Amino acid sequence: MANVLVLVDHTGGKVRKTTAELLTIARRLGEPVAVYIGDGVQDALPALGQYGATKVIALTDPELSQYLVAPKAEALQQVAAKVEPSAILISSSAEGKEIAARLAVKLESGLITDAVDVQEGPVTTQSVFAGNYTVKAKITHGTPVITVKPNAATPEAAETSPEVEEFDVSISDAAKTARITDSKPREATGRPELTEAAIIVSGGRGTGGDFGPVEAFADSLGAAVGASRAAVDSGWYPHAYQVGQTGKTVSPQLYVAAGISGAIQHRAGMQTSKTIVAINKDEEAPIFELVDFGVVGDLHKVLPAATEDVTKR
Ligand code: FAD
């Protein structure tokens, strides 16, 4: 079976859920081979083995982490030259997409970004034009390079004991053009990462600036908190949590929109959510056109009541 490369998305050895999803997809296409860049590969092994990586190629050259994406693309090109994979899967993060683009140029391959599904072929599905069209596509030249959005697949465990192979890369001076001078993690909220969360509770202008009920309901469900642009532009919530065309695209199992009207630009970021619930005091609000469940009411009453109900269980 042909090898399928999966670039591991991790923070210091802690593997992100998106990698489990990529490994699950890779198993549909061939033998998943994980490519791990940076320190901490031993910490990552259990998670990679749990989702079926047959081998882990470890790239530990410190220069790969000291510069922005160009050396990583070069390194992946060298791994691809050795492994000759049938496809390369990368998470659709900002960094992932830049690596994928640079890699595709180096490999003279076709590139598909933001796939929401990948099946045998590989045939990808993308949601385009603010979610108004679904496109199926297949790369016709070179090794397919595909970036996949979070939540495109439900991670399925398939226990393996992958061997680790150290891989020496040679990074050109041309790739060392943007050095990282400082890096610090965002303050931890204790909540799941927005694009990875299974449940998201988002607040809009209808919160009137009080995100307390939104956060409390999110915490009762172990959910992430999101926000509409109106809430972000009003300075009520940071931009990192904005959902929509100019924010994050999310596709959780459950999306709760509280005090959000359902503008097309907001829908673009959340309409592929599996179940959508809206709380809005205006029964004519456009968000009700796409919901699975709707509550007409004041979020300041509905959310605390729902929080109490969930907490009691
Ligand atoms: P509103 O449209 O004002 O809706 C507020 C809703 O809250 C109303 O439906 C109201 O009935 C309800 N409400 C009020 N009080 C209560 C209450 N007490 N209880 C319950 N319900 C209540 N928007 C995004 O969200 N994300 C984007 O990424 C984004 N990108 C954009 C890009 C461009 C180029 C443009 C032009 C716009 C973009 N927008 C984006 C903005 C978008 O068009 C809307 O203006 C925005 O989504 C509206 O946010 P909202 O639903 O919170 O506010």
Structure, described:
The protein has 313 residues and is of the alpha/beta class. The protein is built from 9 helices and 16 strands. The protein has helices at residues 17-29, 41-50, 63-66, 70-83, 94-107, 212-221, 229-233, 264-270, 299-312; strands at residues 3-7, 10-11, 14-15, 31-37, 55-59, 87-91, 111-119, 123-128, 133-138, 145-148, 163-166, 199-203, 224-227, 254-258, 275-280, 293-296. The strands form 3 sheets. It has a 9-stranded mixed beta sheet, with helices on both faces. Strands 13-12-14-15-16 form a 5-stranded parallel beta sheet. Strand 4, helix 2 (41-50) and strand 5 form a beta-alpha-beta unit. Helix 4 (70-83) crosses helix 5 and helix 6 (212-221) runs parallel beside helix 9 (299-312). The protein is elongated and about 60 Å long. The termini are far apart. Residues 204-206, 228-231, 242-247, 259-261, 263, 265-266, 269, 279-282, 285, 298-300 line the site of flavin-adenine dinucleotide.
Radius of gyration: 21 Å
How would a crystallographer describe the biggest sheet?
9 strands, mixed
- Topology pattern, helix = H, strand = E: EEEHEHEHHEHEEEEEEHEHEHEEH
Shape label: elongated
Mean pLDDT: 94
Query: How is the largest sheet built, in terms of strand order?
Result: 9-8-7-10-6-1-4-5-11
Rounded to the nearest angstrom, the distance between the terminal CA atoms is: 48 Å
Strand-residue proportion: 25-35%
Classify the secondary structure makeup into a structural class.
alpha/beta
Protein name: Electron transfer flavoprotein subunit alpha/FixB family protein
Organism: Kribbella sancticallisti
Subunit structure: Heterodimer of an alpha and a beta subunit.
Family: Belongs to the ETF alpha-subunit/FixB family.
